[in-house]
Amino acid sequence: MSTTTTPLTPAPAGSTGPAPSKAVVAGEGRIGLRANLRHVGALARRNLLQIKKDPESMFDVLLMPVIFTLLFVYVFGGSVGSSLGGDRHDYVNYLIPGLMAMMGMNIAMAVGTGVNDDFRKGVMDRFRTMPIARSSVLIAKIVVELGRMMVATLILLVMGFALGMTLETSVLGLLAAVALSAVFGAAIMWIFILLGLSMKTAQAVQGMGMLVLMPLQFGSSIFAPTQTMPGWLQAFTDYNPLSNLADAVRGLMMGGPVASSVWWTLAWAAGITLVTAPLAVSKFRKKT
Q: Which helix (H) or strand (E) is 51 found in, with range?
């Protein structure tokens, strides 16, 4: 049996707009997979057009990999490289896979601030008056941010190879490392979407994000081996999902055991998504 929905006129941009129609929300569950994919594609295109109109929004993606690579290689490369039993070149091989694991975390913050900003401008109220799945709005955000993450990862790899990084495994291992980073990055984006929907301002989202990111990033194996850390900090790094991701990406690119790290990373990504994605969609429906 087919169902029909009556398109609703969206509220003007910048206005709070009417509350979502109960008929639309009730009919949302009858939207098929093909329609959902079409909505995601249209909304992703809308987000890409926004980037085209505001190319400065790509500065973080273009410059962050360059700055982080040069900063850590030339400031810490000598000392950390010697602790690895080598030199700065060995540190490049250690650092680049770790930074790949970090890219998704930093870019995910932009998703939360973007969602929060769209709500303040009234854009999300327009979307909630349309007969589309609420999840498609958020998934489109993640799709575009994953694209930005891939651009940042490509620049990071170019920087790494320019500084002498060597791929010890194969191209398939490299592609698997990129895919694993993307899967985990998408899961982290749901957390920041939930933060963006829960907090009042984009500045608050950014501040909370930094409080979460800093301990996770520096209390991990991203920048340095954890063997020289105090015992209590090593215990934290053992359960830090970023350590699992960094070790998995490093193993896929440079060789070594990866099965345990890969499975733990996938388990973390699945758990985070299963918990935060439904909460984010529910918050999106109910947010006023």
A: helix 33-53
